[in-house]
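Let us work through a complete example step by step.
Step 1: write down the sequence.
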Amino acid sequence: MLKCTPHSVFSWNYVVSGLARGDAQIMFEPFSDQGSILFNDSRLVVRKKGWVNACWTLEQGENIVAVAKKRGIAGRSFDLTWGKDAFLLKQQALIARGYDILLGDAVVGTIEPEHPLTRKAHVECEAAAADIVQLFSFWLVAMVWRSTTDTSPA
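Step 2: predict the structure and record it as tokens.
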């Protein structure tokens, strides 16, 4: 299980612990739906393309590692492609903050806040979801959480 802890009370940047290769950092650019993931001595950049039919690419240097496309206008679910695997990152319920990670019809992971009044979260996945899939999925979920709070950038 991965534990996701914000850098501070007011920060949307996270330290993610519980990975086999050490901690990772989830970072957001100010006033933007872009950022980065620092993992395994590498910096992976998250870039947003488009507005209505937005998609995010996870890039390492010149290579695109994974792609996430927003599903529908509400944009709270994502189709995530990593290599040959196609995942669905889906909100558990309309007003819930928890998300399921599906591979086909099977739930292979969950992302949930520790409790309703915190930004702390945990990611629990089967081996089918590689570390990078879990980190990118959490980055996307944290972006949604950030966009739905009064403290997020405009």
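Step 3: interpret the result. DSSP finds one helix and twelve strands in the chain.
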